[in-house]
Amino acid sequence: MVRTAVFTANIIGFKLLEKLHSLNFYPKIITYDTAFRRTGQSKDFSPFEDKFSIMYLQNNKYEYNKNILDRLDCDNAVCIDWTKDFFKKSRPEFNVIQMQPSLLPKYRGYGCISEQFEKGVYQSGVTFYKPSGKVDAGDIIYQKALRIEYDDYPEDFIENIVNISAEFIINVEKNGLKNYKTLPQNEDEAFYIIRKRSKNAIIDFGRDAYSIYNQIRAFSRPFFGAYFYSEGTKVKVFRAKTEKWQGHFGEPGEIIKNDENGAEIACGSGTITLSEVEINNQIYYNYIPL
């Protein structure tokens, strides 16, 4: 039996451990210590301590954790939602495998889930690859395509990522890498994306309804939410639908209708209905108090 360890963190890692537990599969888990978690997607893995052997790190570079990790006793380390340059300056004795939630060489870098939703990508996937000196540029070990449906949100995509990752981890544990043939990435098709910031999530109702819908999906849970201001109050939007695809139905940002189905708002072209928003830490699913 090949020995496999999983380096993971955040919400994707939490869901991955839930999935592995449901499959009665318990590899060694390496994650970050509670004090080192710094993002809104950080999760506490302590609920899994009675099921998995979990190692906590206090730094996001291999060289600073070398003494601990050299005792890991594994053949392969599969990194899921893990710091991309963790192993950049070091080459441990075990094989390192990174995961990117895209069909590499497309969409290299952080924030590629939001980027793909915002661009309206419908053909995406998951790539497992060997890390190299360039971020997300190593030889591909395994890829699986995933279709993003029009009404999918990041939570749906992440669920698929978790399922594929769990399947891959179990197969690596059973068979190692002997059944995989690595392939170099085509640099002619490669491009990097810029990490998403809060300013990228500001909704401009002067745009068309379809673009706004994709922006709302891109920043929906587990991310921080697309938003706008209504009379000085911040309104985060987590769910919406395009009501009218194109045409002029009022001034951009004008509320056309607000009832049990949500708030329909005029866009530069078409209209969009907001069906789940957060205002002052309160969630509203139907009538939106705007």
Give an overview of the whole structure.
By secondary structure, the protein is an alpha/beta fold. It is built from 5 helices and 13 strands. It has helices spanning 10-22, 66-69, 112-119, 154-175, 209-219; strands at 4-8, 28-32, 54-57, 76-80, 95-100, 123-129, 140-147, 226-230, 233-244, 255-259, 262-266, 271-279, 282-284. The strands form 2 sheets. It has a 7-stranded mixed β-sheet with strand order 3-2-1-4-5-6-7, covered by helices on one side. Strands 8, 9, 10, 11, 12 and 13 form a 6-stranded antiparallel β-sheet that branches. The mean pLDDT is 94.
Q: Identify the strand order in the major beta sheet.
A: 3-2-1-4-5-6-7
Give Rg in angstroms.
Answer: 21 Å
Helix-strand string: EHEEHEEHEEHHEEEEEE
Biggest sheet character: 7 strands, mixed
Shape, principal axes of CA atoms: elongated
Give the overall average pLDDT.
94
What are the SSEs and their pairings?
Elements: E1 4-8, H1 10-22, E2 28-32, E3 54-57, H2 66-69, E4 76-80, E5 95-100, H3 112-119, E6 123-129, E7 140-147, H4 154-175, H5 209-219, E8 226-230, E9 233-244, E10 255-259, E11 262-266, E12 271-279, E13 282-284
Parallel strand pairs: 1-2, 1-4, 2-3, 4-5
Antiparallel strand pairs: 5-6, 6-7, 8-9, 9-12, 10-11, 11-12, 12-13
Helix pairs in contact: 1-4, 3-5
Question: What are the main properties of this structure?
Answer:
elongated; single chain; 7-stranded mixed sheet; 5 helices; 27% strand; 6-stranded antiparallel sheet; 290 residues
